[in-house]
């Protein structure tokens, strides 16, 4: 029984980890890139 709980918890934390990773990637793509482009245009 405990191993099932552990497995579920691990699966959940893995899912959350992927979710956060996707958010970070998304932020880098959509928030950082436009700023970078603007900065490079000013040079």
Description:
With 43 residues, this protein is mainly α. 95% of the residues lie in helices and 0% in strands. It contains 1 helix and no strands. The chain has one helix at 2-42. The radius of gyration is 18 Å and the shape is rod-shaped. The N and C termini lie far apart (62 Å).
H and E order? H
Largest sheet: none
Bin the strand percentage: under 5%
Uncertain stretches of 5 or more adjacent residues: none
* Rg (C-alpha, Å): 18 Å
**If helices are DSSP runs of H or I spanning 4 or more residues, what is the number of helices?**
1
Structural category = mainly alpha
How far is it from the N-terminal to the C-terminal residue, by CA? Answer: 62 Å
Mean pLDDT: 78
Helix content: over 70%
- Gross morphology is rod-shaped
Give me the count of strands.
0
Concise description?
The protein has 43 residues and is mostly helical. 95% of the residues lie in helices and 0% in strands. The longest helix is centred in the middle third of the chain and has 41 residues, at 2-42.
Please give the structural blueprint.
Blueprint: H1 2-42
List keywords for this structure.
mainly alpha, 1 helix, rod-shaped, 43 residues
């Amino acid at each position: 029984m405990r191993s099932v709980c552990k497995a579920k918890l691990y699966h959940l934390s893995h899912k959350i980890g992927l979710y956060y990773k996707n958010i970070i990637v998304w932020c880098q793509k959509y928030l950082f890139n436009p700023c970078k482009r603007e900065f490079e245009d000013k040079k």
